[in-house]
Amino acid sequence: MEYDSWVPEGVDITVPNASRVYDYALGGMHNFAVDRAFWHQVQALFPDAHLIARANRAYLGRAVRWLVEEQGVDQFLDIGSGIPTLGNVHEVAQRADPRARVVYVDVDPIAVEQSRSLLRDNPKAQVIHGDLRDPDAVVWNDEVISFLDFSRPIAVLMVAVLHFIPDEVAPRALISRIGTALMPGSFLVLSHVGPEVSEQGLQRQETARRLYEKTPTPLVIRDGREFRALIDDSFEVLEPGIVAADRWRPDPEQIADIPPQPNALVAVARRR
Ligand SMILES: C[S@@+](CC[C@H](N)C(=O)[O-])C[C@H]1O[C@@H](n2cnc3c(N)ncnc32)[C@H](O)[C@@H]1O
């Protein structure tokens, strides 16, 4: 077994896991042979797949910075936060406003453990183990309610996680439920894998989707209309609407760095 000193008890390192696969795609170190082999299979289908991960991550950073600098948000609940990597939410937010508070939530024990270790000396950031499929247990978690002030706006991030929530679990209802805990003026920051545009691309994407069935979190691809339908009318989707990640308030330097990824869909919405 590799790196077993940092593996929390009970983690199965013989099955690929979305958080570790994504960590590897972004060049991280908290992944195993099974995750790397899995990602190589995805990359055999989509050689530029790592660029989708990078475009998503760049959007996450721009959205957090925009919320702090332009909207005065200083509280973040990041659900499906992943294994810490470059440009974590607390780093971006606290660079813009040192008072910003962040709670990370993930279902994967390795993501939680690595976040805990990174945040040890940061009194304004916390991590909990939680499952988006049980939103009440996340939002009303003792640590969450003692750390964030729900009488003021909060930005809830669900970035690159909704495509792991199948229709049977009613993702729109989950998001609505979270919304009921939020004050008007709160935000949702979302992203989702969308369909490939060409017929050949769609076939390869179906093969990739079948690969994800071998993980604990199978992938659900939704188009822009289906993604939009996850957001109820208590939220207003802000300009520029549902768009590819690179089109959301682009930063010219990032655009030069990462070519457009049309199926990395994103949206930011505000609670009415
Ligand atoms: C692709 S990573 C995204 C990480 C980060 N949000 C980003 O966009 O850079 C998806 C994360 O969602 C987590 N996840 C999947 N299903 C989840 C659920 N039901 N509740 C909480 N986290 C979940 C995975 O463990 C993984 O860490």
Explain how this protein is built.
Strand 4 (155-158), helix 8 (171-180) and strand 5 (187-193) form a beta-alpha-beta unit. Strands 1, 2, 3, 4, 5, 6, 7 and 8 form an 8-stranded mixed β-sheet that branches. The model has no long low-confidence stretch (mean pLDDT 95). This protein has one domain: Rossmann fold (3-Layer(aba) Sandwich). The protein is built from 11 helices and 8 strands. It has 272 residues and is α/β, with parallel strands linked by helices. S-adenosylmethionine (SAM) binds next to helix 1 and helix 3. S-adenosylmethionine is lined by residues 18-19, 22, 56-57, 60, 79-82, 106-108, 111, 131-133, 159-161, 164, 217.
Question: In summary, what is this structure?
Answer:
The protein is of the alpha/beta class. The protein has helices at 18-25, 33-45, 49-71, 89-96, 109-119, 135-139, 142-147, 171-180, 199-212, 224-228, 252-257; strands spanning 75-79, 101-106, 125-129, 155-158, 187-193, 235-237, 243-244, 264-271. It is globular, with a radius of gyration of 18 Å.
